[in-house]
Inverse folding.
């Protein structure tokens, strides 16, 4: 039995991760700021009240998980705020760094004692954080924070290699959730691909930036 932990689990892609993992018969711990009816209906362990930008909040999660071993940590929580060059909102940009990059790194570091040899970490970044792929500009805070997140994922893959923990840096595709005003492919399709990438992840390919469809993306 594999134990997964998913952040941002109350809705969107995070909820769909929990649904598919539960359906596959594995154990999933759902982490969120506040739970949802859909999440409660899954009948899985829910850790709510966890804001990944708050040191104390993450410390509370560590305490309540005690020494529960985690086989797969899925860092999915994230935010997108629109920033154009003519309407830069520095507080909004800072907030995206706080959640997307720093929050993910904080939670990952805090849970490392729960991850043993053979464990995996999935970082849900975005192709919008690919410098090579940026042909349309805009979205300063989101793009910059996702570059920082992907870089954290790459460093984690190197630093955790001796501990035999593999790290995947993943783009889900354009997925229909609140974040995209429900434009894109169904979350079920994206998560099926993301889980396939997580299954494919090993110590040899650790640190790869993959699209959910299996394509290796350029930094
Ligand atoms: N949808 C896409 O097309 C797409 C494309 C590329 C990458 N992604 C990435 O995929 C991930 C999931 O996105 P989504 O589309 O499912 O978006 P979503 O529906 O907006 O869900 C975002 C999740 O992140 C949680 N979250 C936000 N701030 C948080 C915080 N400070 N602490 C803890 N949790 C927090 C939200 O919780 P609350 O309900 O409490 O706000 C929610 O559960 C994100 O990292 C996103 O950047 C999505």
């Amino acid at each position: 039995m594999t134990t997964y932990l998913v952040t941002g689990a109350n809705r969107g892609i995070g909820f769909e991760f929990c649904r598919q993992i539960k359906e596959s018969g594995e154990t999933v711990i759902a982490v969120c700021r506040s739970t949802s009816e859909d999440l409660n209906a899954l009948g899985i362990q829910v850790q709510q009240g966890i804001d990944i930008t708050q040191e104390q909040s993450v410390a509370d999660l560590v305490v309540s998980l005690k020494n529960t071993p985690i086989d797969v940590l899925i860092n999915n929580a994230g935010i997108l705020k629109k920033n154009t060059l003519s309407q830069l909102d520095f507080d909004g940009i800072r907030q995206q760094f706080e959640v997307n990059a720093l929050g993910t790194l904080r939670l990952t570091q805090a849970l490392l004692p729960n991850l043993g040899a053979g464990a995996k970490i999935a970082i849900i970044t975005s192709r919008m954080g690919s410098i090579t792929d940026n042909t349309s500009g805009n979205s300063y805070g989101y793009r910059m924070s996702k570059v920082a997140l992907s870089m954290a994922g790459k460093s984690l893959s190197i630093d955790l290699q001796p501990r035999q923990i593999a790290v995947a840096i993943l783009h889900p595709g354009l997925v229909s959730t609140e974040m995209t005003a429900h434009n894109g492919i169904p979350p079920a399709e994206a998560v099926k691909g993301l889980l396939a990438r997580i299954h494919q992840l090993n110590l040899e390919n650790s640190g790869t930036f993959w699209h959910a469809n299996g394509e290796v993306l350029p930094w």
